[in-house]
Design a protein that fits this description.
Rossmann fold; transcription; five-stranded parallel β-sheet; four-stranded antiparallel β-sheet
Length: 225
């Protein structure tokens, strides 16, 4: 999943982005409100982590503009001002969650998982496609009960496919999901990652099907009666 972190404290932003990337998220980072517009235009994000005290354009104004455009992306607000009035205003402007600084990273990660499940109309933390299982709490895949070893890019591709299992995911959507701002996107490399994933899924009933001109589809075959 690709996240957008909007935080002007560069030390905090560096630490948060590093921690979230270690949890197999793709993370873009911007440091002021005006750059959010460019970030959103450059790629689709599954969730935004938004500080309120930002230079050039405050986080509340960023949130208002985002919702005025009808963008439904989940937003978790971070702020040093956790007053009741501040929380109510943020939620009324369209924030999905509110977290006061200082906070524990475990709590932020849990809140991220909750919002991503809601955005994908899921309540259970575990997603299964045949004997392929993705635990959104541990951020680990397993196949037939054994942990599946994946590179960060393979993980990002497979996560997109399993979250939308049974539905077609375009190559462009996969490319958007796995490349951050600091990486030159190479849509042709998606075929390489899909090939590697197919090798790792060999012997199972889970398949990544190619739909010419449309994209890829994760599916599983029921055992023969």
């Amino acid at each position: 999943m690709r996240l957008l972190l909007v935080e002007d404290n560069r030390e905090l932003a560096d630490w948060l982005s590093k921690t979230l990337r270690q949890a197999s998220y793709v993370v873009d980072v911007v440091h002021d409100g005006e750059d959010v517009e460019h970030a959103l235009a450059a790629g689709e994000h599954a969730l935004i982590i938004l500080d309120l005290a930002l230079p050039r354009m405050g986080g509340m104004e960023v949130l208002k503009r985002l919702r005025a455009r009808g963008n439904p992306v989940p937003v978790i607000v971070l702020t040093a001002n956790a007053s009741l009035d501040g929380r109510v205003k943020g939620l009324n402007e369209g924030a999905d969650d509110y977290l006061a600084k200082p906070f524990q990273i475990e709590e932020l990660e849990a809140r991220i998982r909750v919002q991503l499940r809601r955005a994908n109309d899921r309540t259970a933390p575990v997603i299964a496609c045949g004997d392929l299982v993705f635990d959104t709490n541990t951020r680990l895949f397993s196949l037939a009960g054994a942990t599946l070893s994946l590179t960060p890019r393979e993980h990002a591709v497979l996560e997109q496919l399993v979250v939308k299992a049974g539905r077609t995911v375009s190559k462009a959507a996969l490319s958007t999901a796995i490349y951050d701002f600091e990486t030159d996107a190479d849509p042709s490399a998606i075929e390489i990652y899909v090939h590697r994933l197919r090798k790792k899924l060999e012997g199972s009933r889970v398949q990544i099907a190619t739909l010419r001109g449309l994209g890829y589809l994760l599916r599983h075959d029921d055992p023969a009666p």
